[in-house]
């Protein structure tokens, strides 16, 4: 997993992660659900493919799909 960094100079911030053709973003805490939400966006189509409450779950979903497609 590779971090996506944006900004210049001292203001470089981690904007998300790149993992097997997806950009993974943390959308932060969502009070009605009482949890944080992560989203995986396909780089080629720019569509959100997966949503989960942990980054580990997102990675597992992507890995499961890649093994099913083989």
Q: Which stretches are poorly predicted, pLDDT < 50 over at least 5 residues?
A: none
> Globular, elongated, flat, extended or rod-shaped: what is the shape?
globular
| Beta-strand share of residues | over 45%
Please report the distance between the alpha carbons of the first and last residues.
21 Å
Oligomer state equals: single chain
Percent helix: 10-25%
Secondary structural class: alpha+beta
- Annotation field: number of helices: 1
- Report the radius of gyration as a whole number of Å: 13 Å
**How many beta-strand elements?**
5
The overall average pLDDT, rounded, is 83
- Give the ordered list of helices and strands: EEEEEH
Across the major sheet, the strand order is 1-2-3-4-5
Number of domains: 1
Largest sheet: 5 strands, antiparallel
What does the model show?
The chain is of the alpha+beta class. It has one domain (2-68). The protein contains one helix and five strands, in the order βββββα. The chain has one helix at 55-68, and strands spanning 2-6, 13-19, 22-30, 35-42, 48-52. A five-stranded antiparallel β-sheet has the order 1-2-3-4-5, with helices on one face. The chain is globular and about 40 Å long.
Please render the helix and strand layout as text.
Elements: E1 2-6, E2 13-19, E3 22-30, E4 35-42, E5 48-52, H1 55-68
Antiparallel strand pairs: 1-2, 2-3, 3-4, 4-5
